[in-house]
Amino acid sequence: MIGPVSTGFATGFALILAIGAQNAFVLRQGLARQHVFWLCLLCATSDAVLIAAGVFGFGIIVEQAPMLPQIMAWGGAAFLSVYGAMRLWAAYQGDYKMQLAGQSAGLWATLATGAAFTWLNPHVYLDTLGLIGAISTQYDMNVDRYVFGIGAVLSSYVFFFSLGYGARLLAPIMQSVRAWRILDVLIGLVMWALAIKLIS
C-alpha cells in the first residue's frame, strides 16, 4: 500500500505545485492572513471531489475510448508548454501588483473568488480528471486504486494548508517583484520539463 499511496501523493503534489491563479490567490490570502482556513478547506475539498471522479470514473471512459489517455497526454503537454511560457512571460513583464497588494475582501466574497478560481479553471480538470485519472489506471479497481486516490487527495489538503499558513513565513521574501520573478521562472521551467516528460 505504501507504493500506491506515495505515488498518489507525489503525483497530486507535483501537479498542484505550480503557482496558477488558484494558488496565487491562496498565497495572497495567506500573506494577508485573511480567511485562510476556509479558503484552504474549499480548495482542497473541491480537489478531493474531482480527484475521486477521475480515479474511479476514468477507467470506464478509457474502456470505451482506449486512445483517450494518449490524446490527453498530448493535450496536457501542450497546456503545460503554454502555461510555462506564460509564467516566463509574466516574469519578463514583472507586473505583480495583485500579489504584492495583500488586500482582502470579506469571507463570502473570498470563498466565491476561490471557487471561481477552482471550478472555472480548465487546468484543474486536466489535472484531476485527466492526468491523475489516467495514472490511476495502472492499478486495478481494487484497494490499490482507492489508496492511490487517497494519496492524491491527501496531497491537496497538505499543499493548500501548507501554502495558506506557510505564506506568512514567506511574507518578508515575497514582498518584492524580484522574488516573484524568480518563482515564475522556476515554475515555467518545471512546466516545460513536465510537458517533455508527459510525451516521452
Q: Can you walk through the features of this model?
A:
The chain has 200 residues and is mainly alpha-helical. It has one domain (2-199). It has nine helices and no strands. The chain has helices spanning 2-16, 21-32, 36-64, 68-93, 97-101, 107-119, 122-136, 143-170, 177-199.
Please, how many domains?
1
Counting DSSP E segments of at least 2 residues, the number of strands comes to 0
How can the largest sheet be summarized? none
Quote the beta fraction. under 5%
* Number of helices, counting only DSSP H or I runs of 4 residues or more: 9
Structural class: mainly alpha
What series of H and E elements makes up the topology?
HHHHHHHHH
Low-confidence stretches: none
Radius of gyration: 17 Å
User: Tell me, what's the shape?
Assistant: globular
- Average pLDDT rating: 81
- The separation of the N and C termini measures 28 Å
Query: Portion of residues in helices?
Result: over 70%
Give the structure's gist in a few sentences.
The protein is mostly helical.
